[in-house]
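Re: Re: token formats

Sure, here are both.
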Amino acid sequence: MTLYFASVLPGLEYVLSNEIRHKMCDAEITQIKRGKVFFTTSKSFACLSSLRSADNLFRFIDQFQIGPHKQHLSQLRERMSQLDLYFLDKKKSFRVNASRKGKQTYSRFEAAEVAMEGIQKRYPSWRVGTAKNHQIELRLDIEHNEVTFSLRLTDAAFRYRKKKREFSHHCYLL
């Protein structure tokens, strides 16, 4: 079974966890955090993408601790250089997108750059893409001193579930 997490609007985590249990009989909810539901399943991506209340889907890769200062970014680089990313297509370009919560002396952009350096240390033939031009997006979420690293499975249009995947007409009223 593979560990995934789905992002959801904060406050709807239990709605999503109930949907996961209902649609994936083998799913086990492992953790619920604000705006995220972590779960294991052996179901296909088609089944995962049928989750209507999920905003985005991610394949969990690693979780570890990091300090709040710029000097701790070397730990991040080293950890990234040790990851076994065997399941990724090495012929495609990749990008790390980062978010952070808490009091750190480094920016999310600095953390993402260091993570990409660590990955390239281990896989020197991999190409780093640009923010708009990449095929593989890796996600680095830093919450205080806890880091979650994952592979984004869905694109930005996933949250819009119509056939054309566009904003509903109600959004234009805001």
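Second one below.
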Amino acid sequence: MVCPLIVQDDADISTVIAVYFPFRTWYDYYNGGCVHSGKGNSAVVTTRLNHRNMFVVNSSVFLTQQVAHSA
């Protein structure tokens, strides 16, 4: 799940946002920390402005690939 927060200026300032998470356990994609567990409801997330907030549900498969250049 992606929860973008787009602001034109002050990209280094942190802010707090409320994000709705459906029922399950959710983790921050970047640091692996648990951000929400249990019933579906909103949770408070601290984030930097202009940061792509990505959350992954427990027991899911999320494939990634390194950037590759083709000829």
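The radius of gyration is 14 Å. The chain has a mean pLDDT of 78.
- S.
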